[in-house]
Design brief:
Blueprint: E1 3-8, E2 11-16, E3 30-34, E4 41-46, E5 50-58, E6 67-68, E7 76-77, E8 111-119, E9 124-134, E10 137-148, H1 150-163, E11 172-176, H2 179-186, H3 195-206, E12 211-215, H4 223-238, E13 242-246
Parallel strand pairs: 4-6, 8-11, 11-12
Antiparallel strand pairs: 1-2, 1-5, 2-3, 3-4, 4-7, 8-9, 9-10, 10-13
Helix pairs in contact: 1-3
EC number: 3.1.26.4
GO molecular function: metal ion binding; nucleic acid binding; RNA-DNA hybrid ribonuclease activity
Family: Belongs to the RNase H family.
Length: 250
């Protein structure tokens, strides 16, 4: 399983991640971490105490074999035990709410999605881009939408993501930089426009109870989100749509 560099209470650590660079929590909610890649010691940290600082995915052999350390530091979770308390006077950081930014634990076997929309003018020529990581398979999709608004492009990208997953019981984590989409789909915002599309999306999400949206900052160097953005812009530029499957890549 790959690694990413993350921050734990101001200190950079190596943390277990999936092929898309999202943190992976083990049973019990802890994420395996290393302070040094080859010191022979491994720890667990609560996912809400970790923040990914470098989206580059590192290979499994970045860190060598290690033994579990039972005694944990503040913010870590000892093997087989509860999380260690924070030092006196330091408040525990609240976990990011569903649909907000921050490192979120990813269920084992989840489909990882990055979805984005683009628009030249608002409204104007619009397109969407989607990157899907499903195990070892990677799917890239771009679609030209004709004349539309940016919000329609963002929402349609999420809908296309859901359409790519045939099994309604699969966990799906969809990363989007659209606060509007998260608001109308997960936070109960009242939709004043795009009501038909939003109703379709709400129905699609209701049929997939293990699907959730996670906010990711746009144009912040998150590699797969940047790729989704490039696919959306490509669709607008070329006025064309395409779907490409890369078997065995991640």
């Amino acid at each position: 399983m790959p690694w990413v560099r993350a921050s734990l209470r101001g200190q950079t650590v190596y943390a277990r991640a999936d092929a898309a660079g999202a943190l992976v929590a083990e049973e019990g909610g802890g994420v395996e971490i290393r302070y040094k890649p080859h010191d022979g010691r491994r720890y667990k940290a609560r996912a809400d105490n970790l923040t990914v600082v470098d989206p580059k995915v590192l290979p499994d052999d970045t860190c060598g074999p290690a033994e579990a350390v039972v005694k944990a530091r503040a913010g870590e979770q000892p093997e087989g035990g509860a999380a260690a308390p924070a030092p006196a006077g330091r408040a525990q950081r609240k976990a990011p709410a569903r649909g907000e930014s921050g490192a979120a634990p990813v269920p084992e076997g989840a489909v990882i999605v990055y979805a984005d929309g683009a628009c030249s003018g608002n409204p104007g020529p619009a397109g969407l881009g989607v990157v899907i990581i499903d195990g070892g398979r990677r799917i890239e999709r771009s679609e030209f939408l004709g004349t539309a608004t940016n919000n329609i492009a963002e929402l349609t990208a999420i809908l296309r993501s859901l359409e790519e997953v045939d099994e309604p019981g699969r966990p799906i984590v969809i990363h989007t930089d659209s606060q509007y989409s998260i608001g109308v789909l997960q936070k109960g915002w009242k939709a004043k426009a795009n009501t038909e599309l939003i109703a379709s999306l709400r129905g699609a999400l209701a049929a997939r109870p293990r699907a959730r949206l996670v906010y990711v900052p746009g144009h912040a160097g998150v590699l797969l989100n940047e790729r989704a953005d490039a696919l959306a812009r490509e669709a607008v530029r070329e006025r064309a749509s395409r779907r490409t499957v890369y078997p065995g890549s991640g």
